[in-house]
Structures
1.
Amino acid sequence: MSSRLPPWLRELGETVQVDPAVLEAMDLPRERFVDSSFGSSALTARALPIGGGQTISKPSTVARMTDAIMKCRPATVLEIGTGSGYQTAVLSRLVEKVYTVERIRNIHLDAIRRLYKLEIYNFKALCGDGCLGWKTYAPFDAVMVTAAAPAVPPALLEQLAPGGLLVIPVGTERQELMVYSKDPGGQITSRSLGGVNFVPLIPGEAVGS
Ligand code: SAH
């Protein structure tokens, strides 16, 4: 494990089995992604509120989901649920371009502002319904959904490139982190990475706040 990592990430590396490059990419000022009133707790292992009843995923989940999609060495990633932009920032350090979709306008705008402040520019952000993916830029080498859906939105599987991986929490009361892979012939297979707890993916038009 790299000794350059701050203690919270070194500890995380001892609890989750992920590529060290993922932990290095997570070495961002997490406090800059949450409301300033949560400043001191931003560097803990908990999920944190980001406004509008939404949360920034806990670091172990960010690490596992990122590690899962990096297995296909993606150059482009579609992220559904921009939220604070933390996951977008992590991905931006590992891939060429991140496409991220958020349905709540204020959250979407705040995330863009935060990412620019951190001098992160290799992303495109859309305010809209992520259940529809982002057709203009499809197909994507990998897709990551950071809100739970009752089932995988078909558009997201369609917009996944052959050889690609899609990671998504699936379920309502009980959620499982699922990884779908599309083989070069377009066949889909899936496996579970275990139980998780995400806010719901809400279909429909974008809303203000
Ligand atoms: N990845 C984020 C955490 C996401 S929380 C981070 O790193 O901070 C889940 C986000 O998904 C919320 O911001 C929520 O508004 C958004 N969301 C829910 N349903 C959506 C939909 N249909 N399309 C796009 N975003 C959606």
2.
Amino acid sequence: MLVDTHAHIDDVKYDEDRDEMVARAKEYGVTRIITMGDTMTSSSNAIKLAEKYDGVYAGAGVHPQEALSLMPGDYDTLAQWMTHPKVKVLGEIGLDYYYENASREKQQEIFIRQLDVARQMHMPVSIHDRDAHGDTMAILKKEGRGLTGSIHCFSGSYEMAKELLKMGWFLGVDGPLTFKNAAKLPEIIAKIPLERLLLETDSPYLAPVPKRGRRNEPAYVKYIAEKVAEVRGISFEEVASQTTQNAINVFNLD
Ligand code: NI
């Protein structure tokens, strides 16, 4: 059994075959999927998909690349959504200094306010940090007290990983672990306690080897689990069972 703790199955790339894609995940042993929103609209769509499919749960939140689309009243809507039985996480939220579609100040403002909503509603969060390690850490230290969740697609150093673990966060592992240019990531993932790792695909993006370059989908979380097992020198079964338990605990899944 595996869990894909971060996917975007509302994406238009699945409009032709969404039912088959979700069924295929089950065939691959992926019994649970958390589909993340990145705008208010996609969050609402994620919730509809979670209502439609068994084993699919939703995250609701506004991604830093979409920061300008977030309206003042949306924070109340987000808080309301957090009470939905199939909404299990506030996300995805964070900072993206690679694209910088909105100013850094604006991104930080909506990141912090969404962390506040998560704290009020006692929900875990899924955090996007692209080229923004310093500010992400500073904000989590100051504004993330009492919160937990995943640092989605972790791309920082071992020192950053250790600090996050101390603060109670979990690290999300995605397709880049399987890439030839993964640099230090395999070494880091080998050293982190298995109890603190979460598997994710970020579908439809970041397809792992051997599907690299194609459309990603939750079924392929299996390839990420295989790679985690390989770099740690343990069995696939151990990775699957521990990371599934982690996901159930962090996101309070059924
Ligand atoms: Ni994502």
3.
Amino acid sequence: MEEVTYQGLTFVPYIRRDEIAKQVERLAQEIKRDYEGKNPLFVCVLNGSFIFASDLFRACDIHDAEMTFIRYKSYRGMESTGSVDKIMGITEDVNGRDVIIVEDIIDSGRTAAQLFKDLAEGNPNSVKMVSLLFKPDAVRESKAPDYVGFNIPNEFILGYGLDIDELARNLPDIYVLKKENKEEQ
Ligand code: IMP
Ligand code: MG
């Protein structure tokens, strides 16, 4: 795996695809154990979560699982804008449902807090969250996700669905900003 460059910044390999696959499989087994025999509604938070959600959804292999999509946006470039825009809300009736929110990464926790608040309005039976990545050292505005793939330091990463201004989502591995970029800034 080589370095990659976006917007003049260099990123180095951080989490390889086989490690990602291993954690996705572990999360899937945990979720399957908790929801087998139920009719959970997975809610994929676009755009970043689409690759993780599709891998996780198949790996869970729950007979009566459903998937739907919502879209929230809070990041521009490499920084949180500080506000969460709801671009596309939930269209399903979540009344009495067991909801599993699927996130790519929890950073400040602002998006997660907004998601819990918005979904609770639909009166679901339960709401849990799975996030592939979690930055425990970032500002906390929400409880930790119920299921976490990787705890990572407070660094900007991309690939496997995560973007820099919509680019790099198609990288099969996850990359982190190279140290020397940061010293130049
Ligand atoms: P939060 O609201 O600050 O927790 O940010 C959540 C959203 O910001 C995530 O779902 C991502 O879409 C985006 N995000 C947060 N950290 C990163 C990162 O390191 N790389 C790319 N996107 C990120
Ligand atoms: Mg996201």
